[in-house]
Design brief:
The chain has 257 residues and is α+β, with helices and mostly antiparallel strands. It has a single domain, classed as Endonuclease/exonuclease/phosphatase (Deoxyribonuclease I, Chain A, 4-Layer Sandwich), CATH 3.60.10. It has four helices and twelve strands; from the N terminus they run E-H-E-H-E-E-E-E-E-H-E-H-E-E-E-E. It has helices at residues 26-43, 65-73, 146-167, 190-198, and strands spanning 2-10, 47-54, 77-86, 92-100, 105-111, 121-129, 132-140, 176-180, 204-207, 224-229, 232-239, 250-256. The strands form two sheets. Strands 3-4-2-1-12-11 form a six-stranded mixed sheet, with helices on one face. Strands 5-6-7-8-10-9 form a six-stranded mixed sheet, covered by helices on one side. A hairpin with a 5-residue loop joins strand 3 (77-86) and strand 4. The longest helix has 22 residues, at 146-167.
Length: 257
């Protein structure tokens, strides 16, 4: 057996609990990212899935947040999946990302739509951990519309089904899916929809099974999840107490049996 520790965390563009990241200086934002890096170092995850992470955005200091976090955490590998990109005076470039101790292979970013502000999407990659090939999805779903979230869930499943048809001989287990689901908590919303779709690969568990992640000071909603196939044993899953973003991180410790 081998351990695989995964953290999923929406870092809110590195702004902390401020309502708008554009009100921070680059120096202040880098200081805050260093605090986030210290948290990630303490959590000691093998793979970190991040949402709302900027590459070169005018409202976030015009520097690469992923490269900065990688420098201050020491992760060997990283992958940025940009879902919003806009040039001009008010340039924006952000999306989802992985930090990993393992090489990130077959990496691909998929955007759900074509908006130049607020577009969501997901990032796919494969890692080889202790000789086992593990596919990963890091997603961020629409925050307002359940209809949009369910459509996005369908896009994620169709992508994974196509990947499975092409890559199944190389996968040791079905995909692990994590991220910010922005779900309402209703049985007909995104988490239930994706769990139903993932039955194509077999049984899945939804983690954490209780608690709340948003907003971080006094959380009232559980938005952030790790979906784990039955072939992988979940040793523990916890919501980490933190106020460094408006979301609290979720840590899942898995055993690849």
């Amino acid at each position: 057996m081998s351990r695989l520790r995964i953290v999923t965390w929406n870092i809110a563009h590195g702004r902390g609990l401020r309502p708008i990241q554009g009100f921070q200086s680059r120096h202040s934002m880098q200081a805050h990212l260093r605090r986030m890096a210290a948290m990630l170092t303490k959590l000691d995850a093998d793979v970190v899935a991040l949402q709302e992470i900027d590459q070169d955005s005018s409202w976030a200091g015009n520097f690469d947040h992923l490269a900065y976090l990688r420098e201050h955490t020491g992760y060997a590998h990283s992958l940025h999946g940009v879902t919003t990109r806009r040039g001009g005076l008010f340039n924006l470039c952000y999306g989802n990302a992985f930090l990993s101790r393992y090489e990130l292979e077959e990496g691909e970013a998929v955007t759900f739509g074509k908006r130049t502000l607020g577009e969501k999407g997901f990032l796919f990659a494969e890692i080889t951990a202790q000789g086992r090939r593990v596919p990963l999805i890091n997603l961020h779903l629409h925050y307002r519309s359940r209809t949009a979230r369910l459509d996005q869930v369908g896009q994620v499943f169709r992508y994974l089904a196509q990947r499975h048809n092409a890559r199944a001989p190389y996968w040791s287990v079905p995909p692990v899916v994590c991220g910010d689901f922005n779900t309402s908590g209703k049985a007909s919303d995104a988490t239930a929809g994706l769990l139903a779709e993932l039955e194509y690969f077999g049984a899945y568990g939804l983690h954490p099974q209780g608690g709340r992640t948003f907003p971080s000071p006094l959380p009232t909603r559980l938005l952030d999840f790790v979906l784990v196939p039955a072939e992988i044993r979940v040793e523990r899953c916890e919501i980490v107490r933190s106020w460094l973003s408006d979301h609290r991180p979720v840590l899942a410790e898995l055993e690849l049996t």
